[in-house]
Automatic annotation (TrEMBL):
<dbReference type="InterPro" id="IPR004268">
    <property type="entry name" value="MurJ"/>
</dbReference>
<comment type="function">
    <text>Involved in peptidoglycan biosynthesis. Transports lipid-linked peptidoglycan precursors from the inner to the outer leaflet of the cytoplasmic membrane.</text>
</comment>
<comment type="similarity">
    <text>Belongs to the MurJ/MviN family.</text>
</comment>
<feature type="transmembrane region" description="Helical">
    <location>
        <begin position="67"/>
        <end position="88"/>
    </location>
</feature>
<feature type="transmembrane region" description="Helical">
    <location>
        <begin position="421"/>
        <end position="442"/>
    </location>
</feature>
<dbReference type="Pfam" id="PF03023">
    <property type="entry name" value="MurJ"/>
</dbReference>
<feature type="transmembrane region" description="Helical">
    <location>
        <begin position="367"/>
        <end position="384"/>
    </location>
</feature>
<feature type="transmembrane region" description="Helical">
    <location>
        <begin position="321"/>
        <end position="347"/>
    </location>
</feature>
<dbReference type="GO" id="GO:0034204">
    <property type="term" value="P:lipid translocation"/>
</dbReference>
<protein>
    <recommendedName>
        <fullName>Virulence factor MviN</fullName>
    </recommendedName>
</protein>
<feature type="transmembrane region" description="Helical">
    <location>
        <begin position="202"/>
        <end position="221"/>
    </location>
</feature>
<feature type="transmembrane region" description="Helical">
    <location>
        <begin position="100"/>
        <end position="124"/>
    </location>
</feature>
<dbReference type="GO" id="GO:0005886">
    <property type="term" value="C:plasma membrane"/>
</dbReference>
<feature type="transmembrane region" description="Helical">
    <location>
        <begin position="285"/>
        <end position="309"/>
    </location>
</feature>
<dbReference type="GO" id="GO:0015648">
    <property type="term" value="F:lipid-linked peptidoglycan transporter activity"/>
</dbReference>
<dbReference type="GO" id="GO:0009252">
    <property type="term" value="P:peptidoglycan biosynthetic process"/>
</dbReference>
<keyword id="KW-1003">Cell membrane</keyword>
């Protein structure tokens, strides 16, 4: 059988040319900044574990924060994938046309944030009834208090996402460093005010922290872009139809996929007191590990792939993405082995002090191990997602996301009753396995098209 002959473009994609160097350099910058942010996040989690342990107030805070930020986080995941390629293209336009689009974008983001915050605040008492049967009365009372203060988070999170996308499109990665601001602020609030009011220290520390991050990003945007951050009401820019069409296609699948967060909270609440807190600590550890790789490569590769598509060839962009997908999958597999062995040590090092007992350490470490299995699939998936986004394949991405969510639901029903919190984490790993596999199948079709 005659072997497939690779074209010059695909052979070049596997050599260490300038595009790989750009990705590696950007990933290194992001990696350093993300590590700073995640160290602040780890210290914050240590403080919360020390002062509050696995208690009703932590259950309430984790539940309220996760559900209050679910909608804006879903919007952020959509904007992060769609906005960066568009902003790379907009950067090549004249200053007047670029200023018009960015001013209208700023206004649309603020208006969306205000509307979403209001709806979340009004709907929270009704949403809490879904969890009230299994949630303790004390936790439910704390949750109502948290909801009053955390509603404005939506505005802050959407502004952060928009300003971060602008910086990322310019291959400026200060936004990754500034992610430490909310965690550092909450850490200070918990340490300084935990004796006065646990609710206020957690609530105000979170709100002020995200506000400071948004302000710092606003300043960074004004310093790195001569247009700054103006505001204008309207949709007169010619880029809106394409942007809204892309958001409509991609958001369907992404919203469905992000439903995994409240679904997991629902299953965890049903497991009894302490389960939400255990899931929260475990997910934060996984986020700490995943952020180092996923955020670094995701933020580094998307603007480069988009630039390669705009200035050179689709074939080269696909070749670059496939190589980095392989590298990240191998790296993730190594992390799983190390994390599986070191899970108890890691949890003990970070959390076991104060109100967080040795029993809590064993519980979180046991839940962490099945969650680690998602890492290689997650890291490989991130690279392929950036590739499909830069190609504008949002319909395929939505179908894959829906497929992953359906897999997650089935796995939750089958595993949670048998394994408890560990079942939730194992179901998440199975979800990412299914998504990664689907992206590989779709990527293989793209590669075959290029060979032909």
């Amino acid at each position: 059988m005659r072997p497939i002959q690779l074209s010059a473009g695909r052979r070049q994609a596997w050599n260490l040319h300038d595009d790989h160097k750009r990705i590696g350099r950007n990933a290194l910058y992001v990696l350093v900044f993300v590590l700073i942010g995640r160290c602040a996040g780890a210290l914050k989690e240590i403080a919360i574990a020390y002062f509050y342990g696995v208690s009703p107030i932590v259950d309430a805070f984790q539940l309220t924060f996760n559900l209050m930020t679910w909608v804006p986080s879903t919007l952020v995941s959509v904007l992060g994938i769609i906005l960066v390629p568009l902003l790379v293209q907009v950067r090549l336009l004249g200053s007047e046309e670029r200023a018009l689009f960015l001013a209208e974008l700023n206004t649309a983001v603020v208006a969306t944030g205000c509307a979403t915050s209001t709806l979340l605040y009004l709907a929270w008492p009704y949403a809490l009834h879904v969890f009230a049967k299994s949630l303790s009365a004390e936790s439910a009372g704390f949750s109502l208090q948290f909801a009053k203060g955390l509603a404005p988070l939506t505005i802050e999170i959407l502004l952060i996402a928009q300003f971060s996308a602008r910086l990322q499109a310019q291959e400026k990665h200060v936004n990754s460093m500034l992610e430490c601001v909310p965690a550092a602020t909450l850490l200070c609030a918990v340490v300084m005010f935990h004796r006065i009011s646990a609710v206020n220290s957690l609530m105000l520390g979170t709100l002020v922290g995200f506000g400071l991050q948004a302000l710092c990003l606003y300043i960074a945007v004004k310093m790195n872009d001569d247009i700054g951050a103006p505001f204008k009401l309207g949709f007169s820019s010619r880029h809106w139809p394409g942007l809204l069409h892309a958001i409509g296609l991609f958001s369907i699948g992404q919203i469905v996929l992000c439903l995994a967060v409240p679904v997991d909270q629902f299953f965890a609440v049903d497991l009894g007191p302490g389960a939400v807190a255990t899931l929260g600590y475990t997910n934060r550890l996984l986020a700490l590990i995943l952020a180092v790789g996923a955020l670094a490569i995701g933020r580094a590769i998307l603007p480069v792939l988009t630039d390669v598509l705009q200035t050179r060839s689709k074939e080269r962009a696909i070749g670059i993405a496939v190589r980095w997908c392989f590298v990240m999958f191998i790296s993730g597999s190594i992390i799983v082995v190390l994390g599986w062995v070191g899970a108890p040590i890691l949890v003990k090092l970070l959390f076991q002090r104060g109100a967080f007992t040795i029993y809590n350490t064993q519980t979180v470490a046991t839940a962490l191990r099945p969650g680690l299995l998602q890492i290689p699939f997650n890291l490989g998936m991130i690279v392929l997602m950036q590739m499909f986004s830069s190609l504008g394949k949002y319909r395929i991405m939505s179908v894959i996301a829906v497929f992953g969510f359906v897999t997650k639901i089935i796995a939750n029903f089958l595993l949670v009753k048998m394994l408890g919190v560990e079942g939730i984490l194992l179901a998440t790993s199975i979800m990412y396995l299914s998504i990664f596999g689907a992206y590989l199948v779709a990527a293989r079709r793209l590669i075959r098209e290029q060979v032909k």
